[in-house]
Amino acid sequence: MTAFRTLARTLAITSLGLTTLLGTAMAAQADTLRVGMSGGYYPFTFVERDKLQGFEVDVMNAIGEQTGDDIQFVTASFSGLAGMLDSGRIDTIANQITITPERQAKYAFSAPYVYDGAQVVVRKGNDDIHGVEDLKGKTVIMNLGSNYETLLKELPYADEINLKTYESNIEQDVALGRADAFVMDRTSASQVIKDKPLPLQLAGQPFSRIENALPFRDNEEGRAQRDRVNQALETLRDNGELKAISEKWFGGDITEAPQTEGAEKNSDDA
Amino acid sequence: MQALNLDYMAGLVPVLLGYLPLTLGMAAAGMVCALILACGLAVIRVSRLPVLDQAAKLFISFFRGTPLLVQLFLFYYGLPQFLAFLVSINGVTATIMGLTLHFSAYMAESIRAAITGIDRSQTEAAQSIGMTNAQTMRRIILPQATRVATPTLMNYFIDMIKSTSLAFTLGVTELMGATQKEAASSFLYFEAFLVVAVIYWIVVEALSWCQKRLEKRLNRAYQR
Which parts of the sequence belong to the Ionotropic glutamate receptor C-terminal domain (chain A) (predicted)? Predict the structure, then answer.
């Protein structure tokens, strides 16, 4: 029994100490919004020299300034974020979460704050693939748990695509030529190609419009948080702060709904 | 191909070293807890206590028979589905618990082997001078068994340090998690993972040096 007690105590003490060290919050305080993100999705959420930054980080901090909430970021692998939201370890996910009917049935979504498109990306110099229609017989990879997996599976020729899901580093595997293409949102993909040393190129136009928003748990507390955040988003939209954050990261406004169907984004050449 | 980005690597070193205390802390906590648990299990197995022996066997069989990653996912993501209070266990605690359970199963077996490996004549000699079973265990068997078990236990500790890298999958940003994130933003994979590999390597080398010293010390009685 003593051994067991020592074990329990050691566990309690170490975890306490290490938790403080890590800064992971356990209990939700009324004025703390715990925001989950992968920290690995440039330039929306990424870590450079130990500093968590990106478009999502700026947006959430701006929201926190409006609502008075203390914004606390929790990073975990993308596929683990939904589980953390469901089990109450975080309050929302700021990681370019696309609104889908399935997700809408389960979560209380904020108003959309990013308008984007799903984009096929290939290795530089690969001129076989000009868009989603050329993916037949190709190996296409994406992040586990992402909406792009669903999008591709809905294609009429889905069973002819060799679809693989990864935990991370999809960009590298396409750059190395192990896979033919990956699917990501157009904005991040353009930015990665522009800023980073990987030999990649966009393949054709975006093939599906996507709207990103913040999912909250669909219960009283979650909906209350959602309403507070929505109000803040509206203010940030009106005072131009949302646009300013977008221009800082992308050199263009991705937070405004496009006026015409299939409108091109101004950020980049294809 | 591009040249190795040495500036980036040099800049990454202090950043990653900041995560070393967490990595080592989790491994050390796991090692202490696993040692205690393993000793208990080994004694149960050696003394063949009814019921407890079967329970210990089942425990060892499960935790040795399934991958650590599966165990971590099972406890961290799976169990809270049924036992809601487990949600309050954070990633760091869950990792320490996972390491404890997993490695105690292995360590119990090597401690048991070390104990049973001590020659019977030692026990007989101890009993002939009137020592009780407990005294024999504490004064005669365990000191000798410790010497035998130390190299393998140190092996497990080294393995445990490296296994903390799985904590990233539970949302804990430790050494590997921090590297993974830095690499995901710089896309300099080779540089980032090379830096972290060297850090792990140096840590393990330092430990091996300590192990050598410890073994020498434990061997003192056998040197002529």
Answer: 32-252
